[in-house]
Amino acid sequence: MVTFSALGPFQVCLDGLPLDLGGQRQMAVLARLLVARGRAVPVTILIDDLWPGGPPAQALSTIQGYVSRLRRALEPDRAPRSEAGVLVSAPPGYALRATTDQVACWRFEQLARTEGPAAAVWTSMEAALALWRGPALAEFADLAWASTEAGRLEELRLVAIERRAEAGLRLGRSAALVPDLEAHASAHPLREEGWRLLATALYRSGRQGDALGALRRARTIWREELGLDPSGLLQRLEADMLSQSPHLDLPPVEGPPSGGWSGAGAAGGPGASDDESGGAARALRVVVADDQALVRTGLRVVIDTEPGLELAGEAADGEQAIGVVRDTRPDLVLLDIQMPRLDGLTAARRILADEEPPKVIMMTTFGTDENLYAALRAGVSGFVLKTSAPEQLVAAMRAAAAGDALIDPALTTRIISAFAGTPDPAAPPALAGLADPQLDVLRLIARGLTNRQIARTLAVPDRQVADTVAGLLDHLGLFDRAQLVVAAYETGLVTPGDNT
Description:
Elements: E1 2-5, E2 11-14, E3 17-18, H1 24-35, E4 41-42, H2 43-50, H3 59-74, E5 87-90, E6 93-96, H4 104-112, H5 118-130, H6 144-170, H7 174-187, H8 192-204, H9 208-226, H10 232-242, E7 284-289, H11 293-304, E8 309-315, H12 318-328, E9 332-336, H13 344-353, E10 359-364, H14 369-378, E11 382-385, H15 390-401, H16 409-419, H17 436-446, H18 451-458, H19 462-476, H20 481-490
Parallel strand pairs: 7-8, 7-9, 9-10, 10-11
Antiparallel strand pairs: 1-2, 2-3, 4-6, 5-6
């Protein structure tokens, strides 16, 4: 069996023996397909990703040569001219065919997303973290796609460390957790969750003074590094420790497992979770609207080759898009922002005005701030670049369907800074009547946090956060999370550059 590891030195083994994968760029072909998680990567994207400074004249034939040599290494016993079974042709490019258990980073991600009782989470996080042998994809750190994926995997690793610690606290293993949490908080001093877990572990180990000292260290670091105080969560924890609040002495009461994992990092692919009924999750139905046939073809390939996605229809202009959406009732619409007859922004407004509208993601080649801000106000779930890699497009679709806003906080801050003073008769009313817990959630939404991240930050159940978000939308007369981000800035609840 062939196995792949990118969580540390990049290595491929056949029946336990390492394979010679050739030179750095030839290895990069295999690594790029691994990052795509089984999805087809067009040859044009492979060329751009392997030669970001400009491809050589014979780039296509060079890629074909790399693929041929890699196939011989991966399947040495394959008969000449027989079809490859691992590195396969998947027009308009290539794909890696492997199971989750064969690829360490796929297996890691599956384990890191485990839900359930504390004991099950502890076991899965231990197994996930044991797969790491060093920085992911370090050999290809100078390539943008590898750096992006390495950053995503590193964030999942840090979350897995914190989830393991949370499970350990619930299992009564506080004292044993302290050394690892000390190292974690010291290595990542701006992660509030690390300090919360460390302080809680110290307190439950009978070390109240050290617990308060940890929180004071966190405050000092945040003030020196950011000029900010930690969030209300750590401040409330400190107050509870000073008053020796009884709830700190006991692990939180465990509820039923939550239904899934939300966020841009929750892309599907190998290891995607089933629905609550225990069967396979219903396919996410997608309409693609773009006036360029080549773009529609590329997106059709991405959707057709991705498990759990289904193409519900296509449109070449805004008017067609509205008709196709009303006829097919999809879950999601990928909508070009500039199209003939009726532009994407106007089409989006009309689609979102219907009863029970689908989620809408705007596609753009470059995108002006004016267009992006208008789309935010209209209620779209976010934006993707047409040049995004297939796995990024899939992650965007799944995140939007899960209710998350695809908005980078830095982008939001820049846009709001430029246009927040622009009058809009349809802007949401002031936030009068909202309770402090609702305002806390709204602030965190504006910072780009998912429901799950908000629940962990505020130490409340996921279901409570979901109900609060629904209540905010209802109170403000909005229907999409992205509009809540705009509302938080426009009403002054959050200001550009405010990270608290």
